[in-house]
């Protein structure tokens, strides 16, 4: 588990508009403040990721996602509750004010409530959702440890050390409107 100093350093970096690496359930992730356009652009540049693909947001609880998503029907909430917290990312209708850098060319936003204790603590300490995309250059395998993160993405402002959550593959992605599994 991460000590308090390292968690504070990660939050300080996020609040300053930085881009960080951190462990998730299956791979190391890269994230930033989802409301900071400059940080989003820098994250995409560091990863060499096309903006039109969109990004995932992770949170420690559903309330941290409310400013990004349109109101959700009770039947959809029931489906979300079956998989959260956990490694399932859901595509939900997005609010108009959310940056296209987060949604890409989609009218939905990808969101997940993480079950990874350290990443939950990071979201709680930050006070909101953060961007979560795999820590790798576009087209390369995701980083599985701090050394691989530094090797692939040396431009990151901070890397939060920690252990992966033990999942064998990245989160499943599902469309909340259709139930279709996309990944």
Automatic annotation (TrEMBL):
It holds the Pfam family Sua5_yciO_yrdC. PROSITE patterns: YRDC. HAMAP family: TsaC. Signal peptide: none annotated. One of its GO terms (cellular component) is cytoplasm. Keywords: ATP-binding, Cytoplasm, Nucleotide-binding, Nucleotidyltransferase, Transferase, tRNA processing. It is found in: Cytoplasm. Required for the formation of a threonylcarbamoyl group on adenosine at position 37 (t(6)A37) in tRNAs that read codons beginning with adenine. Catalyzes the conversion of L-threonine, HCO(3)(-)/CO(2) and ATP to give threonylcarbamoyl-AMP (TC-AMP) as the acyladenylate intermediate, with the release of diphosphate. This is Threonylcarbamoyl-AMP synthase. Gene3D superfamilies: DHBP synthase. Its main location: cytoplasm. One of its GO terms (biological process) is tRNA threonylcarbamoyladenosine modification. GO terms for molecular function: ATP binding; double-stranded RNA binding; L-threonylcarbamoyladenylate synthase; tRNA binding. Its EC number is 2.7.7.87. The gene is tsaC. It catalyses: L-threonine + hydrogencarbonate + ATP = L-threonylcarbamoyladenylate + diphosphate + H2O. It comes from the Bacteria. Belongs to the SUA5 family. TsaC subfamily. Residues 4-183 form the YrdC-like domain.
């Amino acid at each position: 588990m991460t000590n308090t100093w390292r968690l504070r350093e990660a939050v300080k970096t996020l609040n300053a508009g930085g881009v960080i690496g951190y462990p998730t359930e299956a791979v190391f992730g890269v994230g930033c403040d989802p409301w900071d356009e400059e940080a989003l652009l820098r994250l995409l540049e560091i990863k060499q990721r096309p903006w039109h693909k969109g990004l995932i947001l992770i949170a420690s609880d559903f309330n941290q996602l409310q400013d990004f998503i349109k109101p959700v029907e009770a039947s959809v909430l029931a489906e979300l509750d079956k998989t959260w917290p956990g490694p399932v990312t859901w595509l939900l209708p997005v609010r108009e004010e959310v940056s296209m850098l987060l949604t890409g060319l989609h009218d939905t936003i990808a969101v997940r409530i993480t079950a990874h204790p350290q990443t939950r603590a990071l979201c709680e300490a930050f006070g909101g959702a953060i961007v979560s995309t795999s820590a790798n250059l576009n087209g390369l395998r995701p980083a599985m440890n701090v050394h691989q993160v530094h090797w692939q993405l040396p431009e990151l402002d901070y890397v939060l050390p920690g252990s992966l959550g033990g999942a064998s593959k990245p989160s499943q992605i599902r469309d909340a409107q259709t139930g279709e599994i996309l990944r």
